[in-house]
Each structure stands twice: as C-alpha cells, then as structure tokens.
Design a protein that fits this description.
alpha+beta, GIY-YIG endonuclease, three-stranded antiparallel sheet, globular
Length: about 80
C-alpha cells in the first residue's frame, strides 16, 4: 500500500504538511478536530496537494523536505 505526503490549507490560511496511508480518512480526522493539535482549532481544512511515496521512510523524508520549504515555495508546489 502506498503512502501519501499531503498539504492541507486551514481556515486561517496556514499550511500543514503530513503523511498518511489514507488521504480521505486523514482529512476527515483533521476536519473533525481529531487530526492533530495544529489543525484542531483551524478547521475546516482543505486538501491542496498530495504526492505518493512507495514506503514510509520515503514519505517521511519528503515530508521533512516540504516542511523545510519557505511558505512561498510551498505555494508554488501547490500551484
């Protein structure tokens, strides 16, 4: 099963990057307030970018790369 690296945009326009095996379920968790502390009070969130990775280590590496990007580069990635 593939892993996904994703970026969601929160209602306050902040961006959150994470990894998951199930994008739909994870976005629902973020929107219900059970996703993580960062998004708990920033719902609703919207999925704005996702990428596939073949393994968890590769997904974690790519997630770390994206998290290090400045906001403008993340916005370019989103398109």
């Amino acid at each position: 099963m593939s892993w996904y690296i994703y970026i969601i945009r929160c209602k306050d326009d902040k961006l959150y990057t994470g990894i998951t095996k199930d994008l739909e379920r994870r976005v629902k968790e973020h929107n219900s307030g059970n996703g993580c502390r960062f998004t708990k009070y920033r719902a609703p969130v919207k999925l704005v970018h996702s990428e596939k990775a073949s393994s968890r280590p590769k997904a974690l590496k790519r997630e770390a790369q994206i998290k290090r990007l400045p906001r403008l580069k993340k916005l370019e990635l989103i398109g």
